[in-house]
Amino acid sequence: MAVVSELRGGVFSPDGQRQSRPTKIDFQEISKSFRSGLNRTTVLDRVNLKIPEGEFVSLLGESGCGKTTLLRIAAGLISPSRGKLAIDGKPISKPTREMGFVFQQPVLLEWRNVLENLLLPIEIFGLSAEEYRPKARELLQLMGLAHTENHYPVQLSGGMQQRVAIARALIMNPSILFMDEPFGALDAITREQMHTELLRIWSMSGATALFITHDIGEAVYLSDRVVVLSSRPGRVKKTFDIDLPRPRVPEHRFDDRFVSLCKDMKHCMTQ
Ligand SMILES: Nc1ncnc2c1ncn2[C@@H]1O[C@H](COP(=O)(O)OP(=O)(O)OP(=O)(O)O)[C@@H](O)[C@H]1O
Ligand SMILES: [Mg+2]
User: What is the pLDDT of residues 210-244, one digit of tens each?
Assistant: First the structure.
């Protein structure tokens, strides 16, 4: 199991060397400005970033620096004002079935039970819910939620709801998983449990993950690479390679290397 995670999820081979993989998401000189009345505000300024296939990358930066805007550009939800975005070498203009999304709030439909919520993307894309039901049950099992398939969202804790949202994002086997502060609303203990669950399921999926957070420890624990953005306009300030072994375990949070990466990132963010 450990070997599988290492090979499919991580970008480091067992001997610690970074593997070279094709670029999945390619931000080329991306700038974005918004107009409000007569004013134009530049939110992102010439962001260059290549995310290799299967890598887990976190974007870290203070509120308003353009993290969500960058993710929305990557997902084809909005266009950049300048620059190019390519996925698998091709431009995109709208979200595709290849993409899974998890947001800060789980956004579950309260009148549908857990299993029905999981199958929502299948229905939206006009596929057979019947066909995907076994997969939905398998994902629930993986997320430790098998007993909740007939429950309604109101019967679940916040952490459980967010697990359903993650399972729903994975139902169509996405090759890219976009997550915008998915654990921001959870307490610290639930959050740490969610980190373990997320890494387990992500390593099995082989998906490329773009994760947004304000939390340095969360970024270090989860990622292969952390990209620190400057405050507005957002630019890539520094990229940190996270050379901690996978699979990650909670004890890693006390490693000297973990602590020193957190310190360096904190320093970079406050500079
Ligand atoms: N559609 C829009 N029209 C005008 N301004 C926008 C629009 N979308 C975002 N902005 C502005 O762009 C800036 C960056 O927003 P964004 O949501 O990307 O920041 P963020 O880094 O995700 O912040 P947070 O950490 O608080 O979520 C903000 O000042 C926001 O008000
Ligand atoms: Mg945001």
Answer: 999 999 999 999 999 999 999 989 999 999 999 99
Q: Relative to the CA of 35, which ligand 1 atom is closest? A: 4
Task: Give the nearest ligand 1 atom to 70 CA.
Answer: 18
Q: Is the model's pLDDT at 186 over the cut of 80?
A: yes
Q: Is the CB of 220 under 6 A from ligand 1?
A: no
The CATH number, out of the four listed (3.40.50.20, 3.60.110.10, 3.40.50.2000, 3.40.50.300), of the domain defined by the range 1-30+52-98+175-271: 3.40.50.300
DSSP code of residue 81? S
Q: How far is the CA of 234 from the centre of ligand 2 (A)?
A: 12
Reported as type and span, the H/E element at residue 179 is strand 176-180
Ligand 1 pocket test, pick from 27, 34, 72 with the greatest ligand atom count within 8 Å of Cβ, gives: 34
Determine the distance separating the centroid of ligand 1 and the alpha carbon of 16, expressed in angstroms: 37
46-101 tens-digit pLDDT: 999 999 999 999 999 999 999 999 999 999 999 999 999 999 999 998 999 999 99
- Helices then strands, each counted (H, E), the chain: 9, 10
Q: Is the CB of residue 64 below 6 angstroms from any atom belonging to ligand 1?
A: yes
Q: Would you say the pTM of this structure is higher than 0.85?
A: yes
Q: Where are the domains of the chain?
A: 1-30+52-98+175-271, 104-173
Q: How far apart are CA 43 and CA 28, in angstroms?
A: 16
pLDDT of residue 112 exceeding 90, the answer is yes
Cβ of residue 66 lying under 6 Å from some atom of ligand 1: yes
* Contact assessment for residue 143 and residue 167, using Cβ atoms and an 8 Å cutoff: yes
Query: CB-based contacts of 35: which residues, under 8 Å, 6+ apart?
Result: 41
* Alpha-carbon torsion angle 231, 194, 187, 236, nearest 10: 0
